[in-house]
Write a structure and sequence with these properties.
This protein is mostly helical. It folds into 2 domains: about 120 residues; about 160 residues, no CATH class. Helix content is about 80%, strand content about 0%. The N and C termini lie far apart (about 85 Å).
Length: about 300
Amino acid sequence: MKLTRDHPLRLEILAAQRNEITEYHIYSRLARSMGEESPNGKVLAQIAEDELAHYHFWRDYTGEDVAPDRWRAWKYYWIARILGLTFGIKLMERGEGQAHVTYERIAEEIPEAKRVAEDEDRHEHELLEMLDEERLQYVGSMVLGLNDALVELTGALAGLTFALQHTRLVALAGLITGIAASLAMASSEYLSTKSDEGEGEGRSPIKSALYTGGAYIVTVALLIAPYLLFADYFVCLGLTLAMAVLIILVFNYYIAVARDLDFRRRFVEMASISMGVAALSFGIGYLIRAWLGVDI
């Protein structure tokens, strides 16, 4: 049936129609970028066709065509390409919570709308089953490198800041400590992963080491940057601690979305540990400076 222009559900159905055509463009473009003959590409192409079918379903009721949301289509396509297919798709699917509520309300008058909502749920489950990105296979290695760098280096920089009270000296000591620690962590991860090769984990020891060492050294560079840019060591310490919290925030949000984890709990736990170690190290730096009578 076709809805009249003044029907109370018309605007909601037009919004649902636009959402479907927008997601059709997102999925179809992602499928082409991955290769439509690849396993993931085939699934994405099929989901795109389902979204297009839903669009036509709603058009039968509204009687008019609707243009896609070009900005949303562009945004989620590039989020998926840059930050990973898993993260991009799940971030988009999170936004469909309101769409399900809308479908339930429409289904009270148009029962067939329930089938569309069920298809949307099936899409999400299919995606969860088919997504197998390398970067998510090595999340454990990245967490290891990132967490160790945050805890160890924020603590070391806090202690060095008060002990040395000279930004360049702190940067020098921090860089030496950070680079040496990143190499040690990468080596340990390589040996650990290699010892697990026979247990069917399927991870490459070399890639595990690179992800761990890479996460560590990038974190080191970000935390030490303020000491290379500013002269006041207390300002540098404050910026470093703020950078540490920002890194924890961004990384935990990424993992929480990609892995469906509790973001708040993970963020509070990791931030508390890093800041607690930094505060303790700052105090230790003060005591050692006083004990040794060092004055630089």
